[in-house]
Every structure is written in C-alpha cells, then in structure tokens.
Design brief:
Largest sheet: 7 strands, mixed
Distance between the termini: 104 Å
Strand content: 15-25%
Shape: globular
Strand order of the largest sheet: 12-10-9-8-6-7-17
Helix content: 40-55%
Length: 432
C-alpha cells in the first residue's frame, strides 16, 4: 500500500512539474491548458498557482477591436457619405456592429471638437479611431500623443511620416487616376458635341468647382483636365473655388459662374448636389465626385470617380486587432479596389465611353500610361524636368523633394496625400 501511495505521489509531482514548465513557455494552445488541469486538481489548494499563472497568456492575445469614426458632416455630404458607407462595409466584414463594435460621430468641425470627439471615443472603449477631413489632422495628432495605446488613422493628412508616432497614420488613394478617367469621359462628350455641331473645337471649355486651392484639389482638377485633353486636345478649363468643403449655395453659384463664362461641361471637387442640380437645370453635362447622381440628374450626369475607403479601413482595423504595425502612409490604387468609377449613365455619356474607359484604365493599371506625364502639359510653355514639392509638410511650406523623374510627376508616392500644386497651361483660375 505504501509502495502504491509513493508511486502515486511521484506521479503527481511529475505532472505538477510538467505544468509549471508549460506556464513558462510561449502562449499555449487550448489542448495543453486542458491537460494541465488534473495536476492542478490533485495539488493542495495553496499549490493551485500554476493554473492562475496561465492567465497572462490569455491577456497577451490579440486585443478585441472597437472602432470609432469621426466625420466632418453627415450623410447629406457626398464626401462624408462615401466614408460612412465604407465604414459600414468594413465593419460588417469584421463582424462589428454599430454601438457595440463601432461608434460614429458626425458633424465634427475641424477644430478642438475633433480632439474632444476622439477623447470621448477612447472613453467609450475605442482602440481604433478614424477621421475623414484634412483639418482634423492636428487634433488627431494631439489625441494620438495623449492616448498611445489607441491607433489613430486619418484620411487626406500629410504629417504621419514626419510626426514620429507609432500610433498615428495617414491614408489616401491614387484618386488622380479616377479623375483622369472621369476627364476622359468628359472629353468624349465634348467630341460628341463638336461632331454634332453643338459647339466648335474652340468652344470645348470645361468648368470646375473646387473647394479650396489646396494641392489635393489642384491635383484633382489637373488630372481631370489632362484626361479631357487625352481625347479632346482643344479643350481648356476654368476653375472657381468656394473656400468650403460643403456649401450647396456656393457650389451652385460656382456652377452658374462657370456656365455664364462659357463652360459647356462641369466637374467638381465639392461635397453637395448644388452644382449638379444647377447643371441639370441648364442641360449642362457634368462629371461628379464620390457618388452617382443619375437619379437626380438623369439627363446630364455622366459618371463619377471616388475613393473606396473600405479596403484601407478593413486593413488598418485588422492590423489593430492582430497587434500589427500600420504604415505611416498608405496609398490605395485601382488594383487594391480603392479607386473606382460609378456606373456610366448611358443617357448622358457619349457612345463608346465604357469601352474607352476600360482601355485607359488597363493602361493606368499596367503603368504604360502616366497621368502626369510631363510630355502632355507645360508651365508657361515649358516642359518641367524637375519640381521641388513640399512633401514633408512641416507647416513652413518649404519645398524639399524633387518629384519629377523618368518623365512624369510622381504623385502620392513620397507620401499618400497629394502634393501636386502646379498651375499648368490651359487652366484659368477665375478667382485669381
């Protein structure tokens, strides 16, 4: 009997030592943890510590995700609605439900209110926070410094690559390629109008309603114009600014100004239906941004380009869940599904638009066509061979990086947000 008891005692000690050895190893799988239970149950109460020591391994597992989204406006803004739809799509793919898995804050101005919203989201348990407007950046950086355990991602910003923060990131996409495609659709429409005798070649003037004279907007309207000229070489363009990201009245007035100045087709980088509805009322074809206007403007809406933010949101949130690093700058492309066109409105578009856009898109994707090919544009009649851009945006507007090489301007390569701020020939700023 004593011999049997001694054998049992030795067996218990071996199992107990094995359990201790497992607790010191890397985070175990479920099976070894279950196998350790008998040893813990056989030991006296005061020797139950090894089972409790397994808890840190569970705590070290990938953190649960709760996302917070800060939007400049609400769904009445086409710009913000595009982000909202992307957030819903990305969260749905990751199994996050609104309220428990993610929180949305709308109508957050580009001021201290942004920091306050971010702090509130942290208090509500969010460990991933995304903001959608350029002016939110300094307040997102402020929050990132205060809450280093939270990942902050910001659309259209410029400072992540110089801020030196592991938890602050910028994202954008090569939307200049989408705008170029929209310009091609516009140029085809101009050609159709010329062939029909509606306008002459020298009347092929397009108009553009811009928000601010920032690099992002300049990059957008220049790439659109280059797309127009890709198929309609005689085209020129007028630009006017609202100095607001969202103002239906000013955007409508901008469209009227352009139409009165002889523009026969309109595009925009603004966030309301102000310009499109004015174009529909005057039977002026237009290319939109961020969403379709085919329902409200069936006779004039041609197509729209947009950034699909869902791929970036899903990627960044997945990195957060897995404890993986998010790049300081991330640039989506047509290939990543980040640059898209809406459906083409055949009622307003020129015949053959879909086929031509497919052809041009294929060349953009394989790199055989460059949007900012310096052979296709000039400045004061000269072709640029180099250009110093303010890539490292330190608030001093000092250019420090040459961004022209191999015969084209390398947009969104040195950082994700656009830095093309050149005034090229053929474009007239009506507000200058």
């Amino acid at each position: 009997m004593k011999k049997t008891f001694a054998l049992l005692l030795a067996l218990v000690m071996v199992l107990a030592l094995a359990a201790c050895g497992q607790s010191a190893a890397p985070a175990p799988s479920a099976a070894p943890a279950a196998e350790a239970a008998p040893a813990a149950e056989a030991a006296p109460a005061e020797e139950a510590a090894p089972a409790e020591e397994a808890a840190p391994a569970e705590e070290a597992a990938a953190p649960a995700l709760k996302a917070g989204f800060i939007f400049l406006h609400d769904e009445t803004s086409t710009y913000d609605l595009n982000f909202m739809n992307a957030a819903k799509e990305a969260c749905a793919k990751l199994g996050l439900e609104e309220g428990t898995g993610y929180i949305v804050k709308t109508n957050i101005p580009e001021g201290q209110e942004c920091y306050d919203a971010a702090a509130e989201l942290v208090d509500e348990g969010c460990n991933f926070i995304f903001a959608d407007s350029f002016g939110h950046e300094s307040y997102m950086i402020q929050a990132a410094k205060e809450f280093p355990e939270v990942q902050f991602c910001h659309a259209t910003g410029t400072q992540a690559h110089t801020a030196g923060l592991d938890n602050y990131h910028n994202g954008f996409a090569s939307i200049y390629e989408g705008r170029f495609l929209g310009g091609v659709a516009a140029g085809l429409k101009l050609n159709e109008m010329i062939e029909a005798g509606t306008i002459t070649e020298d009347q092929a003037k397009v108009g553009y309603v811009g928000a601010f004279p920032y690099a992002e907007v300049k990059s957008g309207y220049t790439s659109f114009f280059l797309g127009v000229r890709y198929v309609c070489p005689s085209a020129t363009m007028d630009v006017t600014f609202t100095n607001s990201w969202y103002d239906p009245t000013l955007e409508k007035e901008g469209a009227i100004k352009l139409i009165n100045n002889g523009c026969v087709l309109i595009s925009e980088h603004a966030d309301s239906m102000g310009a499109p509805t004015e174009c529909e009322a005057n039977n002026i074809p237009f290319v939109f941004y961020n969403g379709s206007a085919a329902v409200d403007c069936p006779n004039t809406f041609i197509v729209a380009s947009r950034i699909d933010w869902a791929p970036y949101m899903e990627y960044a949130m997945t990195c957060t869940m897995n404890g993986e690093a998010i790049p300081a700058d991330w640039t989506g492309t047509i290939a990543t599904g980040s640059v898209k066109l809406t459906e083409i409105n055949e009622q307003a578009a020129a015949a053959g638009t879909a086929e031509k856009l497919a052809e041009v898109q294929a060349m953009l994707e394989d790199g055989s066509l460059k949007v900012f090919d310096t052979a296709t544009w000039t400045v004061d009649g000269q072709t640029l061979t180099e250009y110093q851009a303010d890539v490292d945006d330190m608030g001093d507007f000092v250019p420090e990086t040459n961004v022209i090489a191999d015969g084209f301007f390398h947009e969104s390569e040195f950082r994700s947000a656009p830095y093309f701020d050149i005034d090229i020939d053929g474009i007239t700023n009506l507000d200058a």
